[in-house]
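Two proteins were folded this term; both appear here.
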Amino acid sequence: MNRTDRLYALVEELRAIAPRPRSARWLAGRFEVSARTVERDIGALQQSGVPIYAEPGRTGGYCLDKARTLPPVNLTPGEAVAMALALQGLEGTPFHVTAGAALRKLVAVMQADDACAAREPAGRVHLVRRDEDGPRVPRLVADALSAGRVLRISYGDREGAVTTREIEPLAYVGSPTHWYLVAWCRLRRGVRAFRTDRIGAVSVTAEVPDPRPLRREDLDIPQELVHQLTLG
């Protein structure tokens, strides 16, 4: 059994008995590898976002949180390649890192033969980086909404003047050329859109701001030019 198939099988083995644990020694015997190999495989799955945790004690082992993972996904190889290509398009957006994690989770829960079949056509797709591609969005900016904290940032305006501000993140706005973090700016006492490639140093404070509504008119964008993202 190759490593890709074994990773898939490990997840399904833990899913089948969840929430009960399986020890590294038991899993090593099941897949005819060493316990150290099992531990490395479990570590790789955890890093890719699979919700596996260790339960200590004599009867402990590795457990899978079934409530936070998916059963095998019946995507065709072509659909999987299309998803990978779509997620590649998030380069330079606040969702680039989480898109990579999402793709690894998707492949991990596909049928093993479909996942293998998808790798061949995926390897035939080549993407050319555009000269004008900008820098990646800083991770702390990408996590701004989910963190729900006040950020302290340095920001350079179009003339190059740099100011330090405390902001309350409210939303993202994406355009074909730039991404913006929309936030309540305490320095300017109003809603401002901060171009992500102009944000310098970023730190997350311990302060959780009170909820602040964001109105469509606060975006200062013609309503016919903007629409909200929906799932489904």
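Next, the second protein.
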Amino acid sequence: MKKQLYILLLIFQISFAQSAFEKGNQLYQKENYSEAINRYESVLANGQQSAELYFNLGNCYYKLHKVAPAIYNYEKALQLNPNDSEIQTNLDFARKMAVDDIKIIPKVGFDKLISDFTSSYRYDTWAWIAVAFAFVFLAFFVGYYFSPTAFKKRIYFSGMFLVLIVIIISVFSGMFEKNRLATEKTAIVFAETAPVKGEPKASSPETILLHEGTKVYILERIANWKKVQLTDETTGWISDEAIKELN
């Protein structure tokens, strides 16, 4: 009885989320962006999320010229679908509305190559790739086992070997990407202005003033302060209330 109740509740949540999402799309088409946001946010509050949902939210906030929420939601969409060029394009447009123009120091080296490769998919997508190729490996094994000739056995064995390499790469890529997302904490500045301090206290001198929409990397936490790093590798302490974490 309890399992049936959970199933019914799950079905209700999914149908509610789908209805609210479609209603949000209709409101967006009518240029009623504020109401569309309310509908989309109700889907998130219901525990449902998707790249399309965050993308639509980003579009609504962009139309309303709300820089920080637009960038935040585009970033969330990109986390779920890293290869979507449309999301990246809209994110770039939203970033142009931000006041801060901080230099980006590119990362180099072997770690950069690994990170670029693994971040091409989310860790759960890498897991599904590994599962899919596991079935391919099984098919090659069956072909190898039942092949009547040595030539065909060699072909199937070679295929098994290549597929096994793909499985191993997929598994390790997924593990690397999951670990990267767990350790690399990012956030968007939501306050209109946010002073970055030299120390985690209000009386500390201000080293730089950030504005809404700027992306920061969280390095450390002390009470209601966070030590952050900018894309130009500048570091400092910012109030917890001034930013919203992406992870």
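The longest strand covers residues 215-222. The first helix runs from residue 2 to 29. These notes refer to the second protein only.
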